[in-house]
Amino acid sequence: MWRRNLRRKPGNSAREVARFTPRSNALEIKIAGAGLIGRMLGWHFLRRGDDVIVYEKDDEFEPTSAAYVSASMLAPQSERPESDATVWQMAIESLRIWPEWLEGLNVPYGMDGSIVVAHPGDESLLRKFESSLKRHKVGAFRNLTRVEIRELEPALADRFDHGILLELEGWLDNRSLLNELGSRCGTVNYNHSVSPHELNADLVLDCRGVGSDDPELRGVRGEVIRLHAPTVHLSRPVRLLHPRYRLYVSPRCRDQYVIGATQLESEFRGAVTVQSALELLTAAYTIHDGFEEAEIVELKAGLRPAYPDNTPRVTWRNGVLSVNGLYRHGFLIAPAVVGAVSKEVRKLFAYS
């Protein structure tokens, strides 16, 4: 579990560095992996005054990380029925932090909740979802009538009679965040694949996601479509409950939307399949007919790193601090993960 892993001791090399590094000096930190968590940790330690170098195997303009593909919804309530209490606590902690960080980074975001809907023939799924929320003691949600849906998201009112507003949820612009962090996380060496255990620094962080050599890690495939739909006007994430899948629509600036639903226990790195594309596009059209005339901007697939319990881990592996397994919760829990890493490093180097 998360907390138990944090108690593991660093390897001999990290302990020796900590013993002889003056507390008043900036640390030399090297990070393998410039996905979401690698960039966020680089940004965090650079702000503290440390010297940070990040190594990334991808080209700067052809990223393949899960964070680049992600719909980046902040959805603790939606995810609670399928995640454990640890992830829930990390999510709630992160929600308190995100607004200040995103404002400081000038990243578009919304924290006005999300709406869960189902077509009239599938409304039993709404009741089942509500029961699951209550069973997991998830508060801050309320049922919506057609009139209330129209007040919140007029574009949905013609298709749905009932819905659920999840008041704690929101979204952020993942690519805007990655771009901002990329210019504020230290020196980033792209097209540079490294083995973290071959790097020499006061502190080495392994944030390579599915590129890690951790034998317990697996990749979980996700597929999304980006659409430009100027006749669709949604300000909140929308989840459609369906007997076969849960489709989500996450808004972006300039009339763009990220559509996704698929989660496959597969490490296939190929392009989006025809079956997935058809299901995503068909379901999107059933939410709003404006998606029929939308332009397909992009179809992307990515692999989320996950451990067997789908819970993130911060662990010492032969003197390297490994930060991995954020699964599909990366953006949701990233601030809490940064805080946990910072706590571990403070304990090791005894800095304030």
How would you portray this structure in words?
The strands form three sheets. This protein has an eight-stranded mixed sheet. A six-stranded mixed sheet has the order 9-2-1-10-17-16. It has helices at residues 2-6, 12-20, 36-48, 66-69, 76-79, 85-105, 123-135, 146-152, 174-182, 274-287, 330-349, and strands spanning 28-32, 51-55, 73-74, 109-110, 114-117, 141-145, 162-166, 170-172, 187-189, 203-206, 218-228, 238-241, 246-251, 256-264, 295-306, 313-317, 320-324. It has two domains: 2-68 and 174-217 and 308-349, Rossmann fold, CATH 3.40.50.720; 114-167 and 218-306, D-Amino Acid Oxidase, Chain A, domain 2 (2-Layer Sandwich). The protein starts with a helix and ends with a helix. The chain has 352 residues and is an alpha/beta fold.
Secondary structure elements and pairings:
Elements: H1 2-6, H2 12-20, E1 28-32, H3 36-48, E2 51-55, H4 66-69, E3 73-74, H5 76-79, H6 85-105, E4 109-110, E5 114-117, H7 123-135, E6 141-145, H8 146-152, E7 162-166, E8 170-172, H9 174-182, E9 187-189, E10 203-206, E11 218-228, E12 238-241, E13 246-251, E14 256-264, H10 274-287, E15 295-306, E16 313-317, E17 320-324, H11 330-349
Parallel strand pairs: 1-2, 1-10, 2-9, 5-12, 10-17
Antiparallel strand pairs: 3-8, 4-8, 5-7, 6-7, 11-14, 11-15, 12-13, 13-14, 16-17
Helix pairs in contact: 3-11, 6-11
